[in-house]
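Our consortium's second objective concerns turning raw sequence data into structural hypotheses that experimental partners can test. To show how far this objective has progressed, the report includes one record in full. It was chosen at random from the queue rather than selected for favorable results. The single chain below, 516 residues long, was entered without modification.
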Amino acid sequence: MTTRRTHTSLAASTLAVAAIASLGLVAVGGPASATGTNTTTAPSVIPGGDGPRWGDCPASVKPGPGQQCATLSVPLDHGDPTGPRVDIAVSRLASVRPEARRGTLLVIAGGPGSSGVQRLSQKGAALAKETGGAYDLVAFDPRGVGGSTKARCGLADEDRWMVTLRSWPAADGSIGSNVERARRIAEACDRNGGALLRSLTTANQVRDMEVLRQALGESKVSAWANSYGTYVAARYAQEYPDRTDRWVLDSSADPNPRRLAYGWLADMAKGAEDRFPDFAAWASHPDREAEGLRLADGPGEVRALVVGLAARLDREPRATGVPGAPLTGAVLRQALQSALYSDAAFPGFARLVGQALDPKALPVLPPELTGAMPDEAAAITVGVICNDVDWPRSVPAYARAVAADRARHPLTGGMPVNITPCAFWKGGAVEKPVRLTDDGPSNILMIQNLRDPSTPHSSGLKMRQVLGDRARMVSVDRGGHGSYLVAAGGTGNACGDRTVTRFLLTGERPDADVRC
């Protein structure tokens, strides 16, 4: 088989960039502070019932037609409503059909660390069209994100690259450098993060959502939550069940309080195994020949090629077009992890593999792998997960887990079970994790891809089991992360989209779990 090689850059799709934050990074803590220690701490009522003062969005939001923005002030510590406050960036796409409007739909982004305001910019038009003006669409940037008040850790540049913030083991599988970096990051955030960093928790995001609901003047709200946002939404439904209307959880993870965060990261090894066959089938299809992207004659050969190439790059990294950013085995595996989020990223990864195989080519890395993320982005990306829960602390246990996982899941090379800054967390979890239950109204619809690289279907089933009769689940026979309205043009799987849209418009759900 003849394979043409090209030097075209691996495009950075929005999903690949979102992979930086999506259920895969870890948190570091600041000093214990007054952020509340009781998960039932009530958020403050908006004085006088004042709502957001909507106006034009800043250019950085890249707003869609009709999109408006505002700022909501909330307490830094909801247990101290008269104390310091933080700003929450909020955005709205109001219904243009008052006669059809039935309420407000919150668009809850994932991460931790993703911008809800940006997600509304990207998805708002398609969602408004799909729901026919039935809702004002409202999104927010969680504290620490985007236009909201941000925290900083003061991390060195080399600790803010994706392949260092994520704990990829060394080429020989050792984790000594990961241990040193994890301790260094935890200590930096302890010195510099302060009360604001310590306030970055799921519980506070839920409380901020309740303040937002009050500010909007709605007795109930509906929601479309994605990825980590499904856990936020499920926590809100647990704390404020009577404030929920129609609740959609898209791409959920296991909510077991003993596996929070640590389990989510570990599950990415299985997610990659579930999803990789889609890429392997695509990259071995005869149609790729004319595109110069066919990597092998069969899916099994594609897997062997990618695994073998990563091992070779572990031993002999390749120079790239960016000084100080070589193509290593870890970088290739991270590029694969990002590419598995969306079929649209398959060509770019195949092109990178082709360049790495060609001794005359200069591999071109995707932009998200060529430099450090901003310090405030690193802080929120890592902050929430460790503030939420205590992580294991035994260094030898992490080393054993990495050795076993590298053998079992070579596509992810031990990263999902490796040590993180959370192992050196200062002060422990801010609050005790919450165990979700099936107590509440039966108004939740879940949707989950069968082959999701970040939140595997098997993990979504754990959320489904916990919610019991509160929920129904739609399992979609497709790959990638995110199921509802995911493809270009705002359409995903027609069966899945139709089921979710019908629920949002009429409240009708399937009588039992279904597969699309």
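The partners drew two points from this record. Confidence is low (pLDDT under 50) at residues 1-40, 44-49. The two ends are 36 Å apart (CA to CA). Both points have been shared with the crystallography group to help prioritize constructs.
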